[in-house]
Amino acid sequence: MELEDILARRRMVRSYRSDPVPRDTVERIVATVRRAPSGGFSQGHRLVVVTEAATRRELARLAGEDEYVAAGGQAWISTAPVHVFVGTREESYHERYRQPDKLRDGEEIGWPAPYWYVDAGAAFMLLQLAAIDEGLAAGVYGVLPEQVPDVKALLGVPDDVHFVCVVTIGRAASDPQETRLVSRLGQRRLALEELVRWERWDEPVKTADA
Ligand SMILES: Cc1cc2nc3c(=O)[nH]c(=O)nc-3n(C[C@H](O)[C@H](O)[C@H](O)COP(=O)(O)O)c2cc1C
Questions:
Q1: Tens digit of each residue's pLDDT (9 = 90 or more) over 32-48
Q2: What CATH code is assigned to 3-179?
Q3: 10: helix, coil or strand?
């Protein structure tokens, strides 16, 4: 599929058919993590692929699906046949930036942003785009901070891997509740000029005939 077509289809899907995704398809999607960029090629991203129904149900419970369903929502998290836990290992960045080619005056650099989370975002986007390329749909959910230890314990994730989000993958089902659920439909999409400036923040935008 062309990138333009993939981007036109890119949206967070919150309604799935429950039929499983073939293992080799899931393997191709998660293999894209090896193509993800990372600061200093630190490669701190770590994934756990979950397909077992009982574990998906427990993840959904920890994500608050029961309350959501009680309030009239549909059980989209537990229905999604594939969940991919996306984690990041911050220590991989410190290890990498303490190697001789990365030291500045003998010290690890200061970090302008937590690149381990930046890179996890880039990695999860690759998963979503790859899922769309396979004719599937993907979504993302987070959990409240107090649920993170239970999510990690459920999946056996070690202490040094931080929770980032969980990506859901499956075949999209029709979604009668979409208008109710989707932030995108209730908020204005910012204009391009509000998001992108040219040359300097305070530079006036030049139109083509100016
Ligand atoms: C880091 C991150 C966390 C998100 N967490 C949730 C979530 O917990 N539940 C949910 O329904 N959507 C979640 N979303 C999806 C956003 O609501 C969605 O991306 C946004 O409304 C724009 O819609 P679109 O991606 O379909 O264009 C998350 C998105 C991101 C990037």
A1: 999 999 999 999 999 99
A2: 3.40.109.10
A3: coil
